[in-house]
């Protein structure tokens, strides 16, 4: 995909995620936002906190990669083996359960409105990064993988990884919300 179309698609996705959280989760009470479907499952806020924890790492790493990037090239966005695998594992339509790192697992956290505000701030920052990425070489390996920093993703695949990871967990939060509604309707 051409870089301009690629970044526009990611921008649309992030804008949609931000709207979903603002419209579907922000109006709910904290008790409902913190309610888990089961003791070992995440609440809606825990899903968002998980994303916040990743954003705390990836947004600055992406910003640094963009700032240090070579000028943009008109070449199609390319993927390394690691990048393609990482993106495909996180796609929302991939039903394979993934185990998260302990430090990224928010299960049992005491969460409040700050979680929603932080999520929104991270999305705003990501939208700014996507705009800045218009001038960067998306095919340059520049973003260290959070759990093993010796491995690096290309800038484009790292941006897509972050977005599909967010889509996956916002959809998870939506499933929690729908499940709780169904439970209440019984």
The biggest beta sheet is recorded as:
2 strands, antiparallel
Shape category? elongated
* Succession of helices and strands: HHHHHEEH
Instruction: Tally the beta strands.
Output: 2
Number of helices: 6
The proportion of strand residues reads 5-15%
Instruction: Summarize model confidence as the mean pLDDT.
Output: 93
Number of structural domains: 1
Please report the distance between the alpha carbons of the first and last residues: 47 Å
Task: Provide the helix percentage.
Answer: 55-70%
Secondary-structure-based class equals: mainly alpha
Main β-sheet, spatial strand arrangement: 1-2
Task: Describe this protein's structure.
This protein is mostly helical and 186 residues long. The protein has one domain (3-19, 48-185). The protein is 60% helix and 6% strand. The protein is built from six helices and two strands, in the order H-H-H-H-H-E-E-H. It has helices at 3-25, 30-33, 44-67, 81-90, 113-132, 155-185, and strands spanning 141-145, 148-154. It has a two-stranded antiparallel ribbon with strand order 1-2. Strand 1 (141-145) and strand 2 form a beta hairpin. The chain starts with a helix and ends with a helix. 34% of the residues are buried.
């Amino acid at each position: 995909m051409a870089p301009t179309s690629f970044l526009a698609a990611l921008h649309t996705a992030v804008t949609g995620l931000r709207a979903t959280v603002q419209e579907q989760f922000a109006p709910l009470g904290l008790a409902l936002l913190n309610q888990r479907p089961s003791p070992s499952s995440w609440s809606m806020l825990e899903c968002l906190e998980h994303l916040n924890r990743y954003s705390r790492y990836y947004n600055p790493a992406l910003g640094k990669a963009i700032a240090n990037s070579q000028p943009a090239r008109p070449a199609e966005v390319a993927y390394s083996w690691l990048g393609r695998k990482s993106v495909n594992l996180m796609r929302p339509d991939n039903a394979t359960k993934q185990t998260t790192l302990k430090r990224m697992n928010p299960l049992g956290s005491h969460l409040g409105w700050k979680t929603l505000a932080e999520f929104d701030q991270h999305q705003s920052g990501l939208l700014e990064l996507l705009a800045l990425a218009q001038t960067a070489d998306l095919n340059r390996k520049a973003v260290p993988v959070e759990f093993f920093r010796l491995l690096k993703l290309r800038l484009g695949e790292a941006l897509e990884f972050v977005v599909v990871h967010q889509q996956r967990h916002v959809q998870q939060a939506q499933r929690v919300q729908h499940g709780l509604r169904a439970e209440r309707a019984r």
